Amino acid sequence: MTKLIEYGPAKTIIIDERTASEIDIASNKWKSLLGLRSKPLILNKIGKNAYRIEAKGVAGFVSFNQVSFEIIPKFLSEEELGSEWKLAMWNFFLYGAGLNIFGTAKSSIESLDGIIDLLAYSFVKEFKKSFLRGFPFEYKSNNVYSASIKGKLNTKKYHKLLPVTGKIDQIQTFLSQETSVATLLKWTCSQLMNNVSSGQLRQQLSEISTQIPTQNLTKPRNFETLTAKRSSPHLSTLIDIAKVIYDDKNLSFGNSEIKIPGFLWNSHDLFEKVIFRLFKESLLGQGLSIEKSSQRMLHPDDGKYPVNTVPDIRVVSGGSTQYLVDAKYKVLKNQPKTEDVYQVLAGGRVNSLEEVCLIYPGNGDPDPFKTYHLNDKFLPYRVMTYKVNLGNFSSSKNIAELRKELSATFLQKVLTDDYKVIA
Length: 423
Description:
Strand 17, helix 11 (338-350) and strand 18 (355-362) form a beta-alpha-beta unit. The chain contains 12 helices and 20 strands. It is globular and about 95 Å long. By secondary structure, it is an alpha+beta fold. It has a 6-stranded mixed beta sheet with strand order 13-16-17-18-20-19, sandwiched between helices. Strands 1-6-5-12 form a 4-stranded mixed beta sheet. The protein has a 3-stranded antiparallel beta sheet with strand order 2-4-3, with helices on one face. It has helices at 17-34, 78-81, 84-96, 106-109, 115-130, 180-195, 199-211, 225-231, 236-246, 267-282, 338-350, 396-415, and strands at 2-5, 11-14, 41-47, 50-55, 58-63, 68-72, 138-146, 152-153, 168-176, 251-253, 256-258, 263-266, 289-291, 295-298, 307-309, 313-317, 320-327, 355-362, 369-373, 382-389. Among the domains are: 83-134 and 182-247, no CATH class; 138-176, no CATH class; 283-419, Trna Endonuclease, Chain: A, domain 1 (3-Layer(aba) Sandwich), CATH 3.40.1350.
């Protein structure tokens, strides 16, 4: 397993030309799939079968024929977090995807090799708890041609009622545990078994697979997470894990197919989703809504081609925007970049706000907040910057503390008259 740091220094790998070509083709396709401005994996040849590779704009896990990569987000320090960086990285992804957070203890993951093994470990651990309550049943239909009637007549076969044969086409229903949930979990087991590096985990997954009441190993079609959770609430965490794998994107090359686990994500987009969810949960129950929608910024004289702005987060109460936030997946050094300030100021001006905020990823900064004052009389008057410590995603407890911090800071701003909309 080769570890790369997002936007970090390139590393030397030894691969053949075929693998190098596959990496380059895959990188181009990932660029399109993830909506990136440039290729996420940049490969440069430095000698016979020797290459330098670096990652940009993505984090996660990808595996090729001769090499696997674990790409660490640039704001997660393995040196500071130790083995907990794995949980922080994975929980960061899950949180942005709207899924549950794993609370695996540090001692349990130190020996695991990579994110897929961590995912498999969590699947095995959760299955042992959930299996005690069993799998759900659902009604299924079967077409039967029989002399005894049990069920309902098959309306599509009425033309066969005559001449009399002594048998009737009918549709019979029966209870079965071969449900879409069982099929999903069976398929998930097979996917994890094919990708884990731990032989022990592979054996445990194999044993689990025999306990899932279906022989169907195909990927379910049009799987709906909410429906599955309603029918099987005790399997919710397993469904969350399976859903991540279900959303995997496969890249095809000619007559062969290289399956790249879907754990490579656009860091910029994911960071916006994480901040959106943090605000939504932190300000819950206060009569506020968290929205992201387009707003008209410039009205042309001829009415054609107006200019809009789309703030990442608008805190709305009673139909009016009370506060505005833009999330920037960038390194905040001494001060924010001018273009970022212009963007958030435009949204604040449209909504007549006194203060707006720029949020950046951080890693344990002692003073994550800083306020800037504008040198003019126009709204907004202030721009605040805030660094979110991504290391907090290493545990559910730390995420809860992060929500408390956001609630204490931003709820006060939203509910205080000084920060409300200027009429």
